[in-house]
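sanity check this record:

:::
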Amino acid sequence: MGEVRRINSQERGQLGQLVDDRSATDALATYYALYHPVERVALYAYFPGRASPSGFLAIAQTGWDLFRPMAVPFIAQPQAMTALLRAGLEPHRPVMIQLPIDQRPWIEATVELSEVQVLELLRLDPAAYKPEINVLVVEDASPSGLPRFEVRSGEVVRSAAGVNWSGGRFAEVYLESDAEISGRGYSRSALSAIVGRLLADHKVPLYRVEVEDVRSQAEAHWVGFRKTGERTILAQAVLRV
């Protein structure tokens, strides 16, 4: 019978043996397990009756949602997933959870899901990257200090691309756009700019796009992103009691 234990910052290094830091599909879990600021993440490890863990759950405070932490499980067994969620989640407190789509059935008896999105994981192919120079794109910084590029009209941000997180090898980007400027190329220019910055910093850009967002996928493909074949769900989760 396995057990779950919260691990401290000095112990988090042992989680590195569970992930492949060269894998785009492991990159999200790798970041939260090893690189997210220690004061903003709680890590729970599953120990299946031996000294080394076989999986973990990260509960992280992020700038993406100030009220709902991000829950990122990394485990290969449904029973261990249940144990981790029951140990790490608080009753009645919603979190945002992200995990591979094929693991969704593992959690539905333990948490109530809402606001479900299915996301396609894209990875930049450096050989296909197309830099695009647009004088309207200006560099800024997010409140966390990560790079961000914006297209403004006066004081209004029409499009912006930045970094959700940046780990040892990979960095995940985001793109925000005003629907009114669709078709003008602003989004593509901002996305191209943040990709160029990450490549200069020797990071491999990743990008998650809703599977039904054909326009965003087309823009990402133009910049040089390609599908990895990995799909995840992002949803609000509340522990069932």
Remarks:
- The mean pLDDT is 91.
- Residues 3-118+232-239 form a domain with the Aminopeptidase fold (CATH 3.40.630.30).
- The first helix runs from residue 27 to 34.
- The two ends are 22 Å apart (CA to CA).
